Amino acid sequence: MKAEVVPKRARAHTTYTLADGTVVPGVTTVIQVLNKPALVTWANKLGLAGIDSTKFVDEKAAVGDLAHRMIADHLRGAETDTSEYSKQQIDQAENAVLSFLEWAKHKEISPLIVEEPMVSEEYRFGGTLDCLASINGELTLLDIKTSAAIFPEMLVQVAAYRQLVIERGHTPHKLIILRVGRTADEGFEERLVNHVDKRWEMFLHCLAIYNLQKELK
Length: 217
Known about the structure:
Elements lengths: L1 E3 L10 E3 L5 E2 L2 H4 L6 H12 L4 H24 L10 H18 L4 E12 L4 E11 L2 E8 L6 H15 L7 E7 L7 E5 L3 H21 L1
Helix pairs in contact: 3-4, 5-6
């Protein structure tokens, strides 16, 4: 497996390549075929408030990327370079990190994989999972979000990440989505992913639709 990672803030543009050189889609690209009614409502509210949704999303994406990088570096025991970010972005990302640390308090966390791109040779897709770790003695796949809520498609996303680590020889006992807030008073929200086999089946349907759409272009 080869994964070409574009550095710094272009995390979403990782290119996933199979052993035979074929470029395959990432998990987040594949699940875009799912309907997201909450996203439409949210965009409409921003428009009515006179807010440019594109700029708003770019700003939140920058905060999210930095928060992920800071949490990943914390798990690795490394320092984070924040020189490309504004003070406001750094402040919001630090709030997310503080929420993560609050969640992690009193937990024994031993990371095995942190922010590592992977591909599925069997199903022909890729993804970069946040963390696979032993948490209080249980092998756990941890997906960290800085979004306003935990949305249904996120559970499908994590089920796909599970397949990636299975092909690497690991079978997680738990799949957890952890939402960490960007403001000082948001705190954190933990969601255990259930019905994993059904959510994986949903992802396979999304992948089939994505591939058919690509063929028809």
